[in-house]
Amino acid sequence: MPYTIDPSSADCYPCTSVLINKFDLRSQQELDRVEAVLVTAKAAQWEESPLCSTFDFEHYKAIHRHLFCDLYEWAGIPRSINISKKGTQFCPADEIPRVSSAIFRRLAEQNFFQSLSFDDFVDAFVDFYIRTNELHPFREGNGRTQRVFLAQLAQHAGYQLDFSCIDPDELMVATIWSAQGVDTMLRQLFREMLSPLAD
Fold first, then answer.
1. 139, 83 in Cβ contact below 8 A?
2. Domain total for the chain?
3. In whole angstroms, how far apart are CA 6 and each of 12, 82, 83, 111, 131?
4. What is the mean pLDDT of residues 30-58?
5. Burial tier of 11 (Cβ tally within 10 Å: 0-12, 13-18, 19+)
6. Of 27, 28, 20, 33, which is closest to residue 1 (Cα–Cα)?
7. In the predicted model, what is the mean pLDDT of residues 107-123?
8. Helix/strand/coil for 48
9. Domain containing residue 69
10. Can you list the positions of beta strands (E) in 20-70?
11. Which helix (H) or strand (E) holds 35?
């Protein structure tokens, strides 16, 4: 689903909402198809052999760059325009450096959620999910970057994260509600998606 933006500064082809891309695809449907194939393969590649494990904003950007470098020149580079979606206004572009620094500093201070009980882990994990969703640092590909990062973070803390076991529409609704301060549904979904890794 496209973001709400100012088309004059959107890095799109003239008179369209199609992002300028390395394949010069001018149809959104065609771009979506190519992007889905490429990014799915790149995500599997990262999950099998992560290229970074610092769990800071540089790590987060490295995932985005890995996933989207074949498509966009700006892969891994935070956006310079403001965006919103379904009534949710994401972090203003000029605030991304400050806000991302605070989010990832807090993650490090919490020792990347290691050695927590399951209930405490879910609480901390959901809070981090909400904060990175509010950040939405990239022009496109935020959700996919977030999912790859979260799966690696969960594994680092001794948990498996399985997004396939829930309805993606339910996750979208729960995420929208969490942006309004209601995170009950989101917490329940993450309780279903997370499980301790087998020893």
1. yes
2. 1
3. 10, 8, 8, 39, 24
4. 97
5. middle
6. 28
7. 97
8. helix
9. 7-196
10. none
11. helix 28-48
Do the domain assignments include residue 1? no
CATH code: domain of residue 27:
1.10.3290.10
Q: How far is CA 153 from CA 15, 33, 99, 121, 129, in A?
A: 40, 28, 19, 11, 11
DSSP summary character for residue 87? T
Q: Is residue 152 a part of any domain in this protein?
A: yes
Dihedral of CA atoms 103, 7, 3, 107 in degrees, nearest 10, equals -10
Helices (DSSP H) in 49-181: which residue ranges? 57-68, 96-109, 118-135, 142-156, 168-179
* pLDDT tens digits, 61-98: 999 999 999 999 999 999 999 999 878 899 999 999 99
Q: Of all residues in the chain, what percent are helix, strand and coil, respectively (each to 5)? A: 55, 5, 35
SS3 169: helix
Which residue type, as a one-letter code, is found at position 125?
Answer: F
What's the CA gap between 79 and 130, in Å, rounded?
A: 19
Q: What's the whole-model pTM score?
A: 0.93
> 194: which residues sit within 8 A by CB, 6+ positions away?
118, 121, 122, 125, 154, 159, 160, 161, 162
Summary mean pLDDT of the chain = 94
Domain membership flag for residue 182:
yes
Q: Which of 169, 156, 72, 71 is nearest to 113 (CA)?
A: 156
159 contacts 195 by C-beta, under 8 angstroms: yes
* Per-residue model confidence (pLDDT) at position 28: 95
